[in-house]
Design brief:
This protein is α/β, with parallel strands linked by helices. 36% of the residues lie in helices and 21% in strands. It is built from ten helices and eight strands. Helix 6 packs across helix 7. The chain is globular, with a radius of gyration of 20 Å. The N and C termini lie far apart (47 Å).
Amino acid sequence: MRGLISLVGACALGLSVMSAAHAEDMHDWWDSAWWERGELAVPENHKVAVTRGNYETGEVDVPVMIARPDDGNKYPAVLFVHGRRGLDELIEPHVIRLAARGFVVVAPDLYTGRFIEKFPIEHDTVLEQDLSHGVDYLLARDDLSSDRACIYSHTRGGYYALKVAVTHGRQDNGLACYVSYYPHMQDPNAPEPMQVYRYAPEVDQLSIPVLIFVGENEQYQRKRGIEMSVTALRNRERNAQLVEYPGVGRGFDFRGSEVRTFADDLATKDAIQRASRFMKEHLK
């Protein structure tokens, strides 16, 4: 009776009562198990071992960071792609946090291999080829439980990953899914109007499943391109998800403790668990 009264009262007040099934349709982030039965997802945790190596491209040696659970088991493959910061002391812990979820993660240091300074403005297309070699290097390992890899990136690394998947033909040759945090979905060398009002044409050819994270306070021109890209993919009936976190902006996944907020931390924890589930589903 109380339930009936509450429902009638809500309808009388003009309030909408949303079923769990309806919520599933509206929100990629909805979790009926939690909402209906109180079940909290338990993250997979592993002690991580980190090693260093390199691979040859025919022109340069690309240094790599390799992080994986510190045991003898096999795990799914992930290629981590850094952004304009490069692979530095703020980004390497992200690689470790990802490996702790149960992945073999290879993170190429693309800039050091080419003697490129941090925070480059222009995009050098040779980095795409170097990264494509990284897919082969990763998949040649003998400690993998998957025969393909997911490509996982942030900021400008999202554009590098897009080009490797589409331009370098890795969607049908090694890659199973695309995951990125606030990616640059446009050629950095394109003119300003293209940066604001268009997305990279390669997006239209992206066919592997896509998961993108962005903060509510992301820069307008970056966020607009992301939203247009996901809308275009969905219009083509591709598997594309966009998760937007309130109260955070760029860098929420690696911001240091001196400037880090509780919202940053909540978003980071949710994103890495959500990404882990997504990648494991597509790397079965």
